[in-house]
Amino acid sequence: MLIFFGMSLVTDPISQIRLVPDVSQQTIQNIVDRKHLDDPVIVQYGFWLKDVFTNQFGTTMLGDKPIWPDLSRAMWQTAQLVLVAEFIAVAIAIVLGVLAAKKQYSFFDYATTTISFFGFSVPIFWFALILQWLTVSLFLATGFRLAYTFGLSSPDPANWFIDRLQHMILPVTALAYVSIAQYSRYMRSSMLDVLHSDYVRTAKAKGLSDRTVTMKHALRNALIPLVTVVALNVGALLGGVVITETIFAWPGMGKLFITALARAELYTLMAWMLVAGVIIIVFNLLADILYAALDPRIRYE
Questions:
Q1: 53, 122, 228, 239: which sits with the fewest CB atoms below 10 Å from its CB?
Q2: Phi, psi at residue 145, to the nearest 5°?
Q3: Could you give the count of Cα atoms lying within 13 Å of 184 in the half-sphere of its Cβ?
Q4: For residue 296, what pLDDT is reported?
């Protein structure tokens, strides 16, 4: 409801279409009739809601093209990037955070802190462009192609899997690095709190090995704040995907958003925002479920 009314009331849905020279007045009137734009906004909302649940988000304003096929394809392409990037980011952040907490104030701790600060400070679009520049420079200097700088796949790849992997390396690296910087700091802070707790000191006093104390007693509880951060970061990550996919010409949700925005396809934008909102809610629900899996006390409460 907020998405529809927020976007419908702040602008004329066909204001940009009126400016296109090749669009006739009859075409504009057909759009008005098809989208019920002459009806009250609450009636328009009813028709849009019906399309969401029964007609796969309806059709675009110009061209009457179904929205769902392009949106579902873009979701799958973006999921490849986001899931791989998040998996790598969480795995590396856990290792870095635990080791930094265990070796507090050591050279390793200061080194990971410095790397994290770079991750917080560097804009993702600049980091993505630097990755492209380094990759092209490596290819021109050595003739070795580590990765491709744009696109989803080559026209005629010899090996589909290797080709897709080479296209994913740079955008995944750009997304993962920013997340690693954030997650590792939360993991370090959480791990430090747990390592100084009473039950960890008791476990050490019982004669358990340092590895057992860390992996079976401390790590599990230290993961709870990280689960929260990862779940809440999904919204920010979708925003980062818009920039990253545009730079690397990756045909995912980010590219779809920019294209729809440039064409003033209001109904495509509303479908995009609705799907993004559902994804964020689902990840927050998964975070609540993981709380109970990580800490039995939450289940008992």
A1: 53
A2: -95, 105
A3: 29
A4: 67
pLDDT in tens, 282-292: 888 888 887 77
Delimit the domains of the chain by residue range: 2-54, 72-262
User: Which CATH number is associated with domain 72-262?
Assistant: 1.10.3720.10
DSSP labels, 230-262: HHHHHHHHHHHHHHHHHHTT--SHHHHHHHHHH
In contact, 30 and 63? CB cutoff 8 Å: no
Count of CA atoms in the C-beta half-sphere (13 A) of 87: 6
Cα gap 61→199, rounded to integer Å: 61
Cβ-contact 12, 244 below 8 angstroms:
no
> How far is it, in rounded angstroms, from Cα 192 to Cα 210?
15
Q: Which pLDDT tens digit goes with each residue over 264-281?
A: 788 898 999 898 888 888
What is the C-alpha to C-alpha distance for residues 121 and 134, in angstroms, rounded to an integer? 20
- Look up the pTM and report it: 0.82
- Burial label for 184, CB within 10 Å (0-12, 13-18, 19+), is buried
Helix axes 68-102, 107-121, angle to 10 degrees: 150
